[in-house]
Write a structure and sequence with these properties.
homodimer, about 350 residues, alpha/beta, six-stranded parallel beta sheet, six-stranded mixed beta sheet, about 40% helix, about 15% strand, elongated, DNA-binding
DNA sequence: TTGTAAGCGTTATCAG
DNA sequence: CTGATAACGCTTACAA
């Protein structure tokens, strides 16, 4: 029995002959080691938990951004010996079953947790972070003894978007920002402001609207911007979905993108190139975020001494039609003159 | 010890006083029952596996359709005492760790499996189906002693799309079908053909193209259709993403939707209303598919005698701009005359 | 109604 | 190098 265990775990102190005999038997019996029993004694589970907050209105699992992050996660985790457990926030009916995240984590002996789309101030999340279980957050600035995070260069990305529009001759640039409850929301706003300043453009507070990363909010914000006296000629949206909503609002008014209003999005989700017009956007390396979070988490699990890092991934401007950046810049010059 | 167990499991034979004392202690100690230990003795894990095939090119987790199904799954499973384990297809580096699905399932003592986006002829999938573990497939016609499936009324949906276009006056209707390797692909083709026949329309084989449910294939197929002598005036795409690709192809030629070509999609994914023009489509109840699969699976797990069912969910025509169905039907009459 | 004791399938610790 | 044996934390007879 013990020898079988040794063979299974690749321990060196087994004679080649015995080893082969054991493998033989394992194959013949179709033997699969039982994870539960092993977990019981080792304390390890080979399971990584994923917390992806499920609001009633906006299950974040549904936001294309997180889906792509999840793909990266899955891929990286999959090539290790771990599996992903989707931790549900929903309460169970049964009284003894763990309800909170932390309880579920302990229950399943989850070895590490990836946190996405969760509320930074949720006490449950706090509990998890403090628990000492290794955690990596994505797009969420959570820190702790065993908790780090991965995030795109949101400040730089927003600045990039502004600069691009400025280069195209735009001077009246507005922002449909993300929720300022979130770090990405705050950082994109910051990058937007800074670049405006750096370029010597006037900063109009009525040119800044706050959305929630989803289409409707982009549509509403855009409608408001269009009502402004001296409406903007260009808009940076802090998420592609909001950009899509904004385009809707523009088209609804009988205006055109990019001729009347230029749009730059953020994320470069799968459908960005499929929109009409195709969306100029700041590309986040979504899979990279997932992969990086996973890789770091695995290291955090393996090495208890490792200091949880804060990782920033670069972003990239992808020029398509919605900014008018692909056509010749005759119009740009005109706009620049108009100020 | 045993008494604690009894309290935890809500057994009746515990005095109210003792029961309360135990709960008290549990709360005080922040005690969380260990799932691994319990699993070891009960043989149950409270874990449902999810197989979502990850091709290199098209991780299906990335298809919006499956994402929404997953939301439904998660929600339903979450309100029971189960958690979802994402089973990775990727092989692990470690020799003893389970590689195939079935091994991973046994390894984790997964109680039931939801199958999505997998290849019907994959021997690994076959293994799982034959294993006797309760399974429910979504959009996949897998049957077995303990395996059933849930699927939309694809035949009816395709027919609905054709009829809608016919009602609008179209007579030259083409199909960008899904992969005929898949049941939905076959069924949508079938529905398309049948309805054409029923309406007494001629069936042109060059009006039927096969795609793979992703945008590029829609674009390619549409380009081919546009090259046809006597090109169609309307196209049914067997997936919204393909419809989006088709619209691209049309716009690229300087043609317009729906004026030159009307389009109807399939799925009603999140971004369908955000496309320009917004997409007329056949709505699948994606969350319903997930929820139904989950509910049925839970029953299958609870009752070993239960015959695994085949469930069909109704679909619904959602009229938006891309079919020209929202505008007045002057054009429709004209087209009808032209035949 | 409660406590005692025997497993569940592994790994880890010891002798041999 | 290999075979016993004791945990791991829980459930479940079985006794008390």
């Amino acid at each position: 029995m013990a020898t079988v265990s040794r063979v299974l775990n690749d321990y060196p102190d087994v004679s080649p002959v015995t080893r082969e005999r054991v493998w033989e038997a394992i194959r013949k019996e179709q033997f699969v080691p039982d994870r539960t029993a092993r977990s019981l004694v080792t304390g390890r589970s080979h399971v990584i938990g994923v917390i992806l907050e499920t609001g009633v209105g906006h299950p974040d699992l549904q936001h294309p951004f997180f889906q792509e992050v999840l793909v990266g996660l899955r891929h990286t985790v999959g090539s290790s010996a771990y599996d992903l457990l989707l931790l549900n926030a929903v309460e169970s009916g049964n009284a003894f079953d763990p309800q909170g995240y932390l309880r579920r984590i302990r229950h399943h002996r989850v070895e590490g947790v990836v946190l996405m789309g969760a509320d930074r101030h949720d006490p449950e999340i706090d509990e998890v972070v403090r628990s000492g279980v290794p955690c990596m957050a994505v797009d969420l600035d959570l820190r702790g003894g065993r908790t780090g995070y991965v995030m795109s260069d949101n400040v730089g990305g927003a600045a990039l978007a502004v600069r691009h529009l400025h280069d195209l001759g735009h001077r009246r640039i507005a922002l449909i920002g993300g929720s300022t409850d979130t770090k990405p929301g705050v950082d994109r706003l910051l990058g937007f402001r800074r670049e405006l300043e750096r370029l010597g453009l006037r900063h109009r507070t009525d040119y800044v609207r706050e959305g929630d990363f989803y289409p409707e909010s982009g549509q509403v914000a855009m409608a408001a911007l269009l009502d402004l006296p001296g409406r903007p000629t260009a808009v940076v949206a802090a998420a592609d979905l909001m950009a899509a909503g904004a385009i809707q609002a523009i088209v609804d008014r009988g205006l055109r993108v990019p001729d009347d209003i230029a749009i730059v999005g953020f994320d470069d989700i799968q459908i960005a190139p499929l929109l009409q017009p195709s969306l100029t956007t700041i590309r986040q390396d979504k899979r990279g975020l997932g992969a990086r979070a996973a890789r770091t988490l695995l290291r955090l699990i393996a090495d208890p001494e490792l200091e949880p890092p804060v990782i920033t991934l670069p972003v990239e401007l992808v020029v398509r039609e919605s900014s008018g950046g692909t056509v010749n810049s005759r119009a740009a010059e005109r706009r620049a003159k108009e100020g």
